[in-house]
Amino acid sequence: MAAPRIAVAGGGLAGLAAALDLTGAGCEVHLFERSRLLGGRATSFEIDGHTVDNGQHVYLACCTEFTGFVERAGMADALYLQDRFDVTVYSHGVRSELRAANLPAPWHLLASIIAYRHLNFRRKLQLTRALIALSREKAPQGNFAHWLRQHGQGDETLRAFWDPFMVPALNAPLEAMSAAEAAFVIRTAFLGDRGAARFGYSKVPLAQIMEAAARDLASVRRGTAVAAMETYDGGVRLRTADSQDDVFDAIVLALPPRALQRVLGEPNRFGVTDLDKYETSAIVDVHLWHDRGRLDFDFCALLDSPVQWIFQKGDGYLCCSLSAAGALVSTPTGDVVGAMWREVSAALPELRDAQLVRGAVTRNPEGTYNARPGTVRPAARTLDSRVTIAGSWTATGWPDTMESAVRSGREAARALLEQNAWTTKL
Ligand SMILES: Cc1cc2nc3c(=O)[nH]c(=O)nc-3n(C[C@H](O)[C@H](O)[C@H](O)COP(=O)(O)OP(=O)(O)OC[C@H]3O[C@@H](n4cnc5c(N)ncnc54)[C@H](O)[C@@H]3O)c2cc1C
Known about the structure:
It is a single chain. The protein is globular. A hairpin with a 6-residue loop joins strand 16 and strand 17. Helix 1 packs parallel to helix 11 (about 400-420) and helix 2 packs across helix 11 (about 400-420). It is about 30% helix and about 25% strand. About 45% of the residues are buried. The chain is α/β, with parallel strands linked by helices. The chain folds into three domains: about 5-40 and about 205-275 and about 370-425, FAD/NAD(P)-binding domain (3-Layer(bba) Sandwich), CATH 3.50.50.60; about 95-195, no CATH class; about 280-370, Polyamine Oxidase, Chain A, domain 2 (Alpha-Beta Complex), CATH 3.90.660.10. The chain has helices at about 15-25, 65-70, 105-115, 120-135, 145-150, 155-170, 180-190, 205-215, 255-265, 335-345, 400-420, and strands spanning about 5-10, 30, 45, 50-55, 60, 80, 85-90, 95-100, 200, 220, 225-230, 235-240, 245-250, 250-255, 280-290, 300, 310-315, 315-325, 355-370, 385-390. A seven-stranded mixed β-sheet has the order 8-7-16-17-18-15-19, with helices on both faces. A five-stranded parallel β-sheet has the order 10-2-1-14-20, with helices on one face. Strands 5-9-6 form a three-stranded antiparallel β-sheet, covered by helices on one side. The site of flavin-adenine dinucleotide has 38 residues, from helix 1, strand 5, helix 9, strand 15 and strand 19. Flavin-adenine dinucleotide (FAD) binds near residues 42, 54, 55 and 58.
């Protein structure tokens, strides 16, 4: 029997993870991606002759499905991962470290808090109490800012710990973050396993990983949006935006919620609901090239600054990541670069009197998709066994992250393989 022909719509991490697994299972996979680039929100492109990521992407050691995906793509060497959780935090030029101690969790973290210079002793105690409460509370309710206040966290503790770690993790201000999701992140990263919160990132442009993942697919149709699909007795008929029709045995729809709604036409027929119940939250990255060469950190957090994290991407090249940054999406590039350079050069002692050589801004108004309270995120399976859905915003149990995207894609592939008779013949 010929290998089943499977279409994957959407060449982000979710679609690529599904495509990789389906190819590995012996299917003939055809990928349709609206953009010329692969990787969706986790991609790279050239600005003024420099290849930059669409935005700085970080993973934690607990993101095992993401790292597994990169390994299966043959790119394991592209990833950097810390030996231990070790983060530099600057406040008004004063530097301090949060560094995991050689103790079992959660003591590894609590010991690092003792040495943290940006909180006084009383606030460190309050922070420790809140972390312990989070580890015990099964299902914290309401928004996280409220939960933190209820657990004795004052402005200083929000500023020096909760803001820099949680706002980028969930790409939302504390007031807009669900306490349950925040608790999941804290438990998974900090309270379960001593190594789980180690930071990692790609040492190569993200697009290289995505291209490698697509290498063995039967075809990759770039610049080709899927406009519609319908199921019929023989399989799935797909129509592209340039009015090409093709037929497949099954399809994975790895699209953002609104695009999925358009392609499904009537999502209810597939048992998929609530696709209009996602808020988007912007992420803005500011790329700064300066004349001081290599600085003394790989990445660091800045307190009291719209620049939350700075990553040193190369000698003299800093990428500043600003989460929940909706206000900056329409600000002119020159203004954003100027303002962020002033922030960074004032905060980092090594950059006093440095000159900015060049700056660029990457803007993602739809940085992440957050389900409104009460929304049920859809699972991979639909009412039709030949159609599955994937995306970092679907019901993976994780917030909208690369880990969630890969998990969703793998689950969508697994569901197709389990549900369809042709797989018994693979
Ligand atoms: C700037 C930025 C920084 C981030 N930082 C981090 C981080 O540090 N750590 C982390 O874990 N996560 C981070 N994220 C989130 C992470 O990038 C996403 O969770 C993940 O990449 C989503 O993958 P996805 O495949 O689900 O969705 P997407 O990447 O959105 O992929 C969907 C794909 O579908 C395509 N598409 C849309 N419509 C159609 C159509 N009709 N036909 C065909 N194709 C279509 C799109 O072009 C896109 O390629 C960040 C996101 C941004 C924007």
